[in-house]
Amino acid sequence: MLSKGLKRKREEEEEKEPLAVDAWWLDPGHASVAQAPPAVASSSLFDLSVLKLHHSLQQSEPNLRHLVLVVNTLRRIQASMAPAAALPPVPSPPAAPSVADNLLASSDAALSASMASLLEDLSHIEGLSQAPQPLADEGPPGRSIGGAAPSLGALDLLGPATGCLLDDGLEGLFEDIDTSMYDNELWAPASEGLKPGPEDGPGKEEAPELDEAELDYLMDVLVGTQALERPPGPGR
Amino acid sequence: MRALTATPSCLAVPLPADIISTVEFNHTGELLATGDKGGRVVIFQREPESKNAPHSQGEYDVYSTFQSHEPEFDYLKSLEIEEKINKIKWLPQQNAAHSLLSTNDKTIKLWKITERDKRPEGYNLKDEEGKLKDLSTVTSLQVPVLKPMDLMVEVSPRRIFANGHTYHINSISVNSDCETYMSADDLRINLWHLAITDRSFNIVDIKPANMEDLTEVITASEFHPHHCNLFVYSSSKGSLRLCDMRAAALCDKHSKLFEEPEDPSNRSFFSEIISSVSDVKFSHSGRYMLTRDYLTVKVWDLNMEARPIETYQVHDYLRSKLCSLYENDCIFDKFECAWNGSDSVIMTGAYNNFFRMFDRNTKRDVTLEASRESSKPRAVLKPRRVCVGGKRRRDDISVDSLDFTKKILHTAWHPAENIIAIAATNNLYIFQDKVNSDMH
């Protein structure tokens, strides 16, 4: 009996904590709840930051300082949220990532990709661009999972803002895409029916030739006629 | 802390619609320049003190107004370039004319300000309106004489320093050599010669090879007041880098790095944002630096890199509100800071049209308000107080009723006297110390 009571109490506290944080930031008039911030950020703070990032990226000429600070803050929030899932404290667990980790990782890749694309484009316009860098997955391999969808989203964002990218034609458009996105789970044989072409599995370094089926699929996604399907994660 | 009085010119408003974006005294304090969001520069001049009219003890009146920058359109990038004046810096006066540099996001301009108070009269070949005379009417020669006329202030653009910056210019600083100046944007700092507009030297470049690695930007920079080879720049991560131009052509490697380790007890998701330095100013002595981040002002000794020697809380009651301030973007506001002439008092702005002063010697501080209601001419400014719960005095303002749209971002202190200029949105306030106008 006693242990049951204790257990319930702890669960209640855990439930209360995120609410308190939400209430705290929603009501500016609310007196300070605690000096120390919650160890785990609420998802609303995460959403707010993502919103800010997208808003910043959508400006024709983003305020670089604002952008960099929001991205860094977002990374901090993410870093605190990801380990909250019941994972061992190992930096990169590519073996069995949880669903939450997938989503977070994809968002992180989205951020990196979005920001990278835009900043890369700024550099391209400036005329100092090097050979187009692939949207590299800088983090552990697990983080590149789901990178495809956000990368395309990033390209979408870039479309209206700068004519340069599209002026290069389809070839130039695809030049910037990191070919490793064809190697990840989204396109892997495991996810039904999505695998478009002759990939050699993850880790293949050189860029595979795009065949027409892949091109068609990509164009459909870009145009928006085909909804992007998220692979079912192992945890679900 | 001495009381300050408001002078009649404290209610001088250049144009109601435009938000003041920068304020700067010249090196003698005789002139005060303001720049606004509409690209306009207004220069005020201090009237000489007159024994006949003891009330008008050195007030500031409008001296000249001119359009410095116009909105531009960058056709390549399909972007509009704002005409807002980000910074004005005066050049040291070398002859009868005054010169200043003004900059928007992309282009710096050198303006020359001259006075004309005489004009020649009595030309032989032209009449008063400038038309050629009928030569048959000219019977004798005369020497044209200079006759006094109403003072005319003429402003002309002498140099335009364009195409030096890809990113937005946040600072300019004139070197003590009076020949060069630097301009800084988010990622690069350029060194210009005042007489050469078609090229500049890049002296700092923090742009990463892969933009995906970008995590830090330059937020402010300034030349040392005495050593023409030294300059400092601040970053969005709260660090200061002192660079020596003698060491290398590209000063990416700093000579000194000033950074305070993060306080673990105050750590939050917003730690980096609030540590971002919004302004850095060398002391007049050249021995210290003053920095402003979101919640504090800090004094650094150039000889000590590990931490500031003094930290002053500007509005610590906001520490528990950071989330809301993040949501409404106020946390990104860039406040400036200023030294007084003797480097003994520092000043910075805050919200609700409040500004704060800290006396470094007595360790006392005061909060004052720049508003029409509290600044009747000749009135003594009353110290304000923000209460955070607990005991509340009669005139206290509670944290929750602070107006975050009324922010004092730009302030300036006369180089020698206790006269301060405060920009509150689109109003300029000039306060001066009536009791004792000498530095203490």
* Helix content range of chain A: 40-55%
Q: Main β-sheet of chain A: number of strands, strand sense, barrel status?
A: none
Our estimate of the beta-strand percent of chain A is under 5%
Distance between the termini of chain A: 33 Å
Class based on secondary structure composition and strand pairing of chain A: mainly alpha
Largest interface here, residues on each chain?
Answer: A-B, 44 and 40 residues
**Which regions of chain A are unreliable across 5 or more consecutive residues at pLDDT < 50?**
1-37, 85-108, 125-169, 184-207
Overall pLDDT score of chain A: 53
Query: Biggest sheet of chain B: strands, sense, closure?
Result: 4 strands, antiparallel
**Poorly predicted segments of chain B:** 1-14, 435-440
- Total helices of chain B: the number is 2
Query: β content of chain B, as a range?
Result: 35-45%
Oligomer: heterodimer
Strand order of the largest sheet of chain B: 1-32-31-30
Helical stretch tally of chain A: 8
Rg of chain A computed from alpha carbons, rounded to a whole number of angstroms: 21 Å
Distance from N terminus to C terminus of chain B (CA atoms, Å) equals 11 Å
Description:
The complex is a heterodimer of chains A (236) and B (440). Helices cover 53% and strands 0% of the residues of chain A. Chain A is mainly α and 236 residues long. Chain A has a domain at 45-79. The longest helix of chain A has 28 residues, at 99-126. In chain B, the strands form nine sheets. Chain B has a four-stranded antiparallel beta sheet, with no helix packed on it. Chain B has a four-stranded antiparallel beta sheet with strand order 2-3-4-5, with no helix packed on it. A four-stranded antiparallel beta sheet of chain B has the order 8-9-10-11, with no helix packed on it. In chain B, 2% of the residues lie in helices and 40% in strands. Chain B has two helices and 32 strands. The radius of gyration of chain B is 24 Å and the shape is globular. Chain B has helices spanning 271-275, 322-327, and strands spanning 5-6, 20-25, 31-36, 40-46, 60-67, 72-74, 79-81, 87-90, 98-103, 108-121, 145-161, 171-174, 180-184, 188-193, 201-205, 218-223, 230-235, 240-244, 256-258, 279-282, 288-292, 296-301, 310-313, 337-339, 345-349, 354-359, 365-369, 386-387, 397-398, 410-413, 419-424, 427-432. The chains are: A mainly alpha (236), B mainly beta (440). The interface between A and B is large, with 44 and 40 residues. Chain A: It comes from Mandrillus leucophaeus. Chain A: InterPro entries: E2F-SERTA_domain_protein, SERTA_dom. Chain A: Residues 38-85 form the SERTA domain. Chain A: This is SERTA domain containing 1.
